[in-house]
Hints:
The complex is a heterodimer of chains A (382) and B (170).
Chain A: H1 2-23, H2 35-38, H3 43-55, H4 61-69, E1 74-80, E2 83-88, E3 90-95, E4 99-104, E5 117-119, E6 129-132, E7 138-139, E8 142-143, H5 148-173, H6 183-204, H7 212-230, H8 244-260, H9 264-271, H10 280-323, H11 328-371, H12 376-381
Antiparallel strand pairs in A: 1-2, 3-4, 3-8, 5-6, 6-7
Chain B: H1 8-143, H2 147-169
Amino acid sequence: MKQGLKNILLSAAAAITVFVMAQTPAFAATDTTATADMAATDTAATQEAGSEEGGNGEVDVQGIIFGHINDSYEWHITDIGGKSIAIYLPVIIHSKTSGWHCFLSSKIAHGHEYEGFYISTSEKYDGKIVERGPDGEEIRPFDISITKNVLSLIISSALLVTLILCCARWYKKHDVLKEAPKGVAALLEPVIEMINDDVIKDAVGPNYARYSPYLLTAFFFILINNLLGIIPIFPGGANLTGNIAVTFVLALCTFLAVNLTTNGHYWREIFWPEAPMWIKPILIPIEMFGMFTKPLSLMIRLFANIMAGHALILCIVSMIFITIKMGAIIGGSMTVVSVGFGIFMDCFEILVAFIQAYVFTILSAVFIGLAQERPHAEGHKN
Amino acid sequence: MSLLIPDSGLLFWMLLIFAVVFAILAKFGFPVITKMIAKRRDHIDNSLRLAEEAEVKLGQIKQEHARIIAQAREEQNRILKEAAQERDNIIRMAQTQAQDEARKILDEAKTRIDAEKESALREIRSQVALLSVQIAGKVIRKNLESDQAQIDLVTRLLDEANTSRAIKNN
């Protein structure tokens, strides 16, 4: 609760900054690009867009939300007095024509062009670095820049590894039979024990020990990134687990864990199920399809839940700036409502952060457990 | 729709970083922790089982204890009863002995009394006989002063002797 309260206070502070910025005439718009075009630019750009719109008395909620949800080449923290405070991140790209390029994203911020590269505003490559092709069209280079999400990923991974290794170190240094765990070990042990014993052991079955490192890693990875995502300022606030690439990799790992370590019975169930002959042509495609839909559902579920959570909180906060134009009474009362809702949503998101990590882990464990299935006759014997 | 298309850069970094994180945690992190947790759980289970066994054993010892106490009490009762019996026996024996003794004494006293009585009677009888002889002598001496009387007496005595002989012969 305390954490949630802190978060909403921080988000409120951040939102007020945005609001102040929106009122600053220095940001008065000259560009009247359509809102749809701006919908998915990076945070700084969208907030500028918001402020530009703000000049016309409108708050670009869509721009703010998509600016947050999407990745960006810089980590925009806040704006103070019209000055944007952001961490510019290294851009690493490989162009087919000019080879590798590596520079700070400050060089291409605010629409600047550097070494022929710039951030696109076109519909196709919106918000991404592109280079100008020979006949004027935009070409997307191979891009492995350290973006906001990548930096967030590095930070959260470092944090996760540190936490878990600290915990493991405690167990190495202390006699587990004589001492009760303290510090990080005491914090993590109940969670690890719960996931390992109640989820993994129950769902996977007898040889669960082989899969428990992966499933525990996945659980803690998702949990820590979900929780960091709720914190509104650096180093939190990145929408990492609400990004399809991240959930894709996680789902891919589950897919590999299920399909690479299974036994012959699993493949037999898919390609030659125990069913009447005439039903087999129907069943086999369904089973093969099911092979892919299971991890796909994992991917979409995590992505959609976290992204929706982020979007919803941003909507609620944005409500303050939309209604403030309607006068003091409506604006004031809606602010109270928004803050109340925001507190609720932040608490709810903490719950969702855990639930989604838990669901991903339990479903992965169940899929692995199903693939480990023994034939029925043997199962009855056991 | 760009939301649903995985970005190649993030995909690359995510694959790399997640693989590294997984490798580190799977090697040095989770197995250590889960092994230790399992070890402690086994230890706790073991301890609980041992405690349970100890409790059972303790119960058995208590039972044994109670049994021994009950046995001792029984023994005590038995000994007390025996002692009481013994006492009664001794008393009874003493009583019978005393009675016997008393009877013996009484008997002795009676026999002695009888003997005394006999000797007294005998003495009396002899005295009476002596006296009667003396008296009879005196009486006879007085009666037989006349001759006739002496003859009558001798005759009567002879008759008497005859009749008694006749009766005997018959």
